[in-house]
Automatic annotation (TrEMBL):
Stored SUPFAM superfamilies: SCP-like
Domain SCP2: 68-154
Origin superkingdom: Bacteria
Alphabetical list of Gene3D superfamilies matching this protein: SCP2 sterol-binding domain
Identification of the protein by name: SCP2 sterol-binding domain-containing protein
Pfam name, any one: SCP2
Length: 159
């Protein structure tokens, strides 16, 4: 955790050892952050890069292969927007989930587009993906049915 004080304080968040934070602790931290605070994190490019790398790095460990079965899919994530858009790809195949940073030449089965605050709320279990889609905070291109079922393939903490 942060060296001192409340981890929801942005100064302390910058010092946080994300690798030592459980998914449940991360969900609690995100739950305590306002959209404005998350947008401040997004403007701090080194901190944003650390947070995104940690979240996407955990996807493989939180993947539930028994639920995915024979699913084969490439999911492209576009987080943020404009000059600061981060792109990651999640490939589910043969009972594994691999994540790469950047856009490949492969055609994704689904692309998810959302802002930084919405992304962190979604992956930490602090937002409902259906509500996000209906309020246009989450845009989906491609296989909407796959997108709707993505949460069941991952062990997403509840804060």
């Amino acid at each position: 955790m942060a060296s001192s004080g409340n981890p929801n304080n942005l100064d302390n968040l910058a010092e946080l050892d994300f690798a030592g934070v459980s998914p449940e602790e991360f969900a609690e931290i995100v739950k305590g952050l306002s959209g404005k605070q998350i947008n401040e994190i997004a403007r701090d490019q080194p901190l944003r890069a650390r947070v995104l790398a940690e979240v996407f790095g955990r996807m493989g460990r939180q993947f539930k292969p028994e639920t995915a079965g024979s699913l084969e899919a490439l999911i492209r994530w576009k987080v943020g927007g404009g000059d600061s858009e981060a792109v990651y790809e999640t490939r589910i195949a043969d009972g594994t989930c691999t994540v790469t940073e950047g856009r490949s030449d492969a055609e994704p089965r689904v692309t998810l587009v959302l802002g930084d605050a919405e992304f962190l709320k979604l992956v930490s279990g602090n937002a409902n993906p259906v509500t996000m889609f209906m309020t246009r905070k989450l845009r989906i291109a491609g296989d909407v049915a796959l997108a709707a079922g993505l949460t069941r393939y991952f062990d997403i903490p509840k804060a």
